[in-house]
Amino acid sequence: MRPVFAKILNDINHQTFSIKQFSNSNFSTEFHFHHECQINLVLESTGKRIVGDSIDGYEIDEITFLGSDLPHVWHTHADALGPKGSARSITLFFDPDKLISAMKHFVDPERLVSFLQISRRGLVFKKGVTKQLKPLILAISQSEGFKQVALFLTLMDIMIHTKEYVILSSAGFQANYSANDPEKMDNIIRFMFENYHREISLDEISVIANMTKQAFCRYFKNRTQKSFIQFLNEIRISYSCQMINQGDEFLGSTIIIKNNK
């Protein structure tokens, strides 16, 4: 799918990293990418995330690390918001080139460079190391000046040395996008998330995309490296697995069986 290029650090070129605290009715945004690396901590809500060609559920306290130019989107479950009816997260953005350049003055950046290369496929940290990372991210969001920088470097040191993470996108995934790509797929993604529980015909989704069926199939396969049906079924399976894990085995199984006859 064609993501939208997002310029994150345009207004803070003098900084190596930036912190954003998000609180809204949901996380749903346009499928987008940016040069900056992104560290994301979910504080409230659950839902689905697409990272590259990976489709999976996200949950509270999940920490992800997304490398440069990796397309992604989070989509919140409407019935899984926080106590105040909001989705909340803390996100750190940093310019990888600036960080590598700065670290060259102090240490050999080889391990950092290697980690950032792996992160171009997206990482989600396991719960054991998340217990170390979450307090640091919270402390960074509440600090400033030298203390904030020191905490950020401590966070990065743990991340680049741990092996307690899962790589999200497949080894063959290639994010060959440019800043001038059109914003064609956002409506399609939203439509699929909102209607995955029922049959979606190729005729219907082609109308949403404002394309012929043949053109849509070529376009979708070229952008996602998956067919429309394969992509839609992965969304359904992901939702079903999450329902089964939450104890609703009947509904989870029904979604898979009903839509894969």
Number of helices: 9
Total tally of structural domains: 2
Secondary-structure-derived class? alpha+beta
Q: Please state how the strands of the largest beta sheet are arranged side by side.
A: 2-9-4-7-10-11
CATH topological fold name of the largest domain: Jelly Rolls
Helix content: 40-55%
From the alpha carbons, calculate the radius of gyration and give it in angstroms. 19 Å
The backbone outline, from C-alpha atoms, is globular
CATH architectural designation of the largest domain: Sandwich
Keywords: DNA-binding, Transcription, Transcription regulation
GO molecular function: DNA-binding transcription factor activity; sequence-specific DNA binding
Protein name: HTH araC/xylS-type domain-containing protein
Organism: Sphingobacterium nematocida
What order do the helices and strands come in, and which of them pair?
Blueprint: E1 4-5, E2 17-24, E3 32-33, E4 37-44, E5 47-51, E6 54-58, E7 63-66, E8 72-76, E9 87-94, H1 96-103, H2 110-118, E10 123-125, H3 127-141, H4 145-161, E11 165-167, H5 186-195, H6 202-209, H7 213-224, H8 228-245, H9 249-258
Parallel strand pairs: 1-3
Antiparallel strand pairs: 2-9, 4-7, 4-9, 5-6, 5-8, 7-10, 10-11
Helix pairs in contact: 3-4, 8-9
Descriptive notes:
The chain has 261 residues and is an alpha+beta fold. The chain folds into two domains: 4-167, Sandwich (Jelly Rolls), CATH 2.60.120; 182-246, Homeodomain-like (Arc Repressor Mutant, subunit A, Orthogonal Bundle), CATH 1.10.10. The chain is 41% helix and 20% strand. The protein contains nine helices and eleven strands. It has helices at residues 96-103, 110-118, 127-141, 145-161, 186-195, 202-209, 213-224, 228-245, 249-258, and strands spanning 4-5, 17-24, 32-33, 37-44, 47-51, 54-58, 63-66, 72-76, 87-94, 123-125, 165-167. The strands form three sheets. Strands 2-9-4-7-10-11 form a six-stranded antiparallel beta sheet. A hairpin with a 2-residue loop joins strand 5 (47-51) and strand 6. Helix 3 (127-141) runs antiparallel to helix 4 and helix 8 runs antiparallel to helix 9. It is globular. Residues 8-12 and 250-258 have low confidence and may be disordered. It comes from Sphingobacterium nematocida. GO terms for molecular function: DNA-binding transcription factor activity; sequence-specific DNA binding. Keywords: DNA-binding, Transcription, Transcription regulation. Residues 186-261 form the HTH araC/xylS-type domain. This is HTH araC/xylS-type domain-containing protein.
